[in-house]
Design brief:
- By secondary structure, the protein is mainly alpha-helical.
- The protein has 4 helices and no strands.
- α1 runs antiparallel to α3 and α3 packs antiparallel against α4.
- The protein is elongated and about 55 Å long.
């Protein structure tokens, strides 16, 4: 029986590091999702009669998504940075922006 040689192809020896602002942006990109859950809970608990509160939460969530998107893109463009974390933050921010935009458009149309 021949032993298979251990393949070290999955190791990367590099000086790239995780970006602290990119990591923070990735973690904070989940804030709009949490805000959405809170807005749904608030609307449910108020019997659908909390438009000012949910509107303020929505605006805060859109602003948070825009800021995290901006920081994620800036950090993904830097040299010697592991790109996976900032790109994940950017994708999550774009999804949250799309979701909140859909909520506002549906609210304006009145569906």
């Amino acid at each position: 029986m021949r032993r298979r040689a251990r393949a070290d192809k999955h190791y990367k020896f590099t000086k790239k590091k995780h970006s602290a602002p990119g990591t923070a942006a990735c973690i904070l990109s989940f804030a709009p999702l949490v805000m959405f859950g809170y807005a749904v809970w608030l609307s449910y608990s108020e019997g659908g009669q909390a438009p000012e509160k949910t509107g303020c939460i929505g605006i805060a969530a859109v602003l948070a998504a825009c800021i995290t998107l901006k920081v994620s893109i800036q950090e993904a463009r830097k040299e010697n940075v592991i790109k996976r974390v900032p790109v994940t933050g950017a994708v999550m921010s774009v999804l949250m922006l799309a979701g909140w935009t859909a909520v506002y458009v549906i609210g304006w149309i009145g569906i």
